[in-house]
Predict the 3D structure of the following.
Amino acid sequence: MIELRNVEKCVEQRGGQFLYLLRGINLSIREGDFVSLMGPSGAGKSTLLHILGMQDHAWTGEYDFDGQAVHKLKPKDRQALRNANVGFIFQSFHLLDDLTVYENLDLPLSYRNIKPTERAGIIGDALDRFRIVGKKDLYPAQLSGGQQQLVGVVRAVIARPKLLLADEPTGNLHSAQGDEIMTMFQELNAEGMTIVQATHSESNAARSGHVVRLQDGWMEK
């Protein structure tokens, strides 16, 4: 499903010096895999996630996603491919403050050209499955941090993306909430969803099927 070949990213610093954030990344991810990216802060985990999610275009190398050469696509075509296939969970939630929970969940479905009546059914099922029916008319500011994170997770998975990317998905949650999120990931993965998470947590990584360790932008052998 995913093939990265010699992917590198660097940024220019003062004095014309370059800092490499990723170096020589070669990575294969099969459909249905659950992969954890681990490493200290600054190792390149989030940078790699944003490349996989086609949100970062300033890199070199080759990236094939589901048979398409991402590195050859125009920005608008990358965006279309991302919107159709990728869900992203951010540690900082990134819910839209002026939209209710229901409207936040409707947003990713609107990118898929799903009819409004179908979208209403999908949202209703998700609200019920994740036990947040009573929150559907609330705004993010009216939710606790854990509730916002849960809504962020539901928003990321509601359109059944082929690829789910999660950046420290339990970083702002207490242990019981974090365990619930990780159990949800395992259930979604068992249903066939491909998941890549960046995490500092060994226990979270143990829930996945494969661990990729990064150090100073390099993949450990």
Notes: The mean pLDDT is 92.
